[in-house]
Amino acid sequence: MGIAAEYKAKVNNSGVPEKILEARNNLWEYNKLINSKFFRDSRWHLKVIADTLQALFEHRIIKLSEDESWRFVTLEEKRRMDENNVEYIVCRNLAIDIPPRHGKSYNLSQFCDWVFGKDQEQRVIAVTYNEILAGRFSVNVRDGIEATKEDKRFTVFNDVFPDVHIKYGDSAKGMWSLEGQYFSYLGTGFGGTITGVGCSIGIIDDPVKNHSEAFNDELLDAQYQWYTDTFLSRLEEDAIQIINMTRWNSRDLVGRVLSDEDAGDWYVLEMKACLNEETQEMLCPELFSWKSYLKKKVKMSLAIFMANYQQTPVDLQGALYKKFQEYDHLPMDSEGHLLLEEIKSYCDTADEGNDFLCDIIYGVYNMEAYVLNVIFTDKDMGITEKQVAEAYFHWHVGWADIESNNGGRGFARAVERILKEEYDSNYTHIESFYQGENKIARIKSNATWVQEHIHYPKNWKDKWPDYYLAMKSYQSDKKNKHDDAPDATTGICEKMGFAADNWLYK
Q1: pLDDT at residue 110 is higher than 90
Q2: Average pLDDT of the residues in 243-260
Q3: Helix, coil or strand: residue 207
Q4: Measured between alpha carbons, how far is 235 from 416 in angstroms, rounded to an integer?
């Protein structure tokens, strides 16, 4: 086949080369066309990032109910669901947790260009660590659109989207517009001013500079407050938001949003630099080889290395609990009848103003505990009394142990009263008792039993995110700010009669 015939074979009826059409409709194909040297098919993780970003933009990450996991659907599948009036939940929030130098920020800037090519009415606000990095990110996006074709062998943005241009005279470094738009892009540093504009896409890229900042509670609190008070207020209805960062601390921005009440609204894309140390399998050996991995591991603090390259926040590495048992369904017989022998509850009321109440309802079968419900909150007792009473009634709790320390006895009486007055129920026997044992000793000495014999539902991370994080991050050899969750969980072990001898820890 001659050159002319080969070219015609790659051009459809519209006269547009097939590769251009593919790039218009597919972010990964666009990336490869713009920079084939970097975006190679061998770097499969880059394709995963691009496909995820495109699916988020096209509202193709969905679930049919709150209890389901997110799934990706094609545009055709989504169209059929819409035609058949199938109800589903669309994901609009993406957290990207990938090692440094693996192309995640570059992929994001390419994504912005491609989005502007697809829809010039999109508005992006991109926030990075400081104004310098924000300006650099902004320039990368702007220059990608403005790129001039100087070599016929290379493809630029306007080859794919010839009708999209930066507005003349409105192309400042940090804020600019496309032709026909009053505002298209704003780049700013974390904590900067973004009043007066709104966006359909909000991006936060690596807000934490280093491990020192990652463990500065005041800085983390300030970042989160700016995120909730300022950044979220700029998101328009149905906007999507993307947080792209190296994880350091379970209290960093991603950790916070994943522990909020709406944690289930987030899709998390997480990848480790090394997939398997035994086989030396790397995520992308072309960008970060096994040899480089070992060098970094030797030179860096292990905790910092694991946070950067293996996506394990530093404060989770010294955790007391290393694993948890999970169940897909509760114990049942061959005919589908539940085998739970009794439904019980353990409640640790809040000792002080900044403590959490933790109430765990669990079923017992064959000397194993199956967690059914968790209330973990720092709300006032006037609220939690009603929450606990409602949960006892709903789950048909037969026996409830409530610690009587620091107001616990009054709490127990209030719960019992609410059950009788509002639910006309005396089904639950409430036992209030004084807990006088050393709390830390109890938690540590019974940690093994807790890990081996308390079973959580598969989606407990989504059902009770605050409790989940409190259990996962409880430190073995460090002072913990809160211990309410491990304390109450240990109580299950004690009330089932399996408590270990604590004398070694006293």
Answers
A1: yes
A2: 83
A3: coil
A4: 45
Q: For residue 410, is pLDDT > 70? A: yes
Cβ 127 vs Cβ 231: under 8 Å: yes
Q: Is the per-residue pLDDT at 425 higher than 70?
A: yes
Q: What is the DSSP letter of 84?
A: T
Local structure of 348: helix, strand or coil: strand
Distance, in Å, from the CA atom of 388 to the CA atom of 87, rounded to the nearest integer, reads 32
CA distance 112 to 161: 13
CB 349 within 8 A of CB 378: no
pLDDT exceeds cutoff 70 at 398: yes
How many CB atoms neighbour CB 190 within 10 A? 25
Do the beta carbons of residue 166 and residue 179 sit within 8 Å?
yes
Contacts of 229 (CB under 8 A, 6+ apart): none
Q: What SS3 state is found at 247?
A: coil
Residue 355 contacts residue 411 (beta carbons within 8 Å):
no
DSSP 503: G
Q: Hey, what's the torsion of the CAs at 114, 194, 313, 353, to 10 degrees?
A: -150
The residues near 231 (Cβ < 8 Å, ≥ 6 apart) are 125, 127, 194, 202, 204
Residues facing residue 128 across a β-bridge: 189, 205
Residue pair 156/147 in contact (Cβ under 8 Å)? The answer is: yes
Q: In the prediction, which pLDDT does 194 show?
A: 82
Q: Which residues of 79-107 are buried (b: 16+ CB within 10 A; e: fewer)?
A: eeeeeeeeeeebbbbbbbbbbeebbbbbb
- If one counts every other C-beta atom within 10 angstroms of the C-beta of residue 6, the result is 9
pTM equals 0.66
Q: With contact defined as beta carbons under 8 Å apart, do 321 and 471 qualify?
A: yes
pLDDT in tens, 476-491: 776 677 789 999 999 9
Q: What is the pLDDT of residue 445?
A: 92
Neighbours of 142 (CB within 10 A): 25
> What is the 3-state composition of the chain as percent helix, strand, coil, each rounded to the nearest 5?
40, 20, 35
Q: How far is CA 376 from CA 15, 78, 126, in A?
A: 62, 37, 34
Rg, the chain, Cα only: 27
Q: Give ∠ CA 258-264-268 in degrees, rounded to 5.
A: 60
SS (H, E, C) 419-466: HHHHHCCCCCEEEEECCCCCHHHHHHHCHHHHHHHEEEECCHHHHCHH
Identity of residue 433: F
Where is 116: in which H helix or E strand?
helix 104-118
pLDDT tens column, 281-311: 999 999 999 999 999 988 887 777 888 888 8
Residue 480 CA to residue 306 CA, distance in Å, equals 21
The angle at the Cα of 427, spanning 423 to 429, to the nearest 5 degrees, equals 115
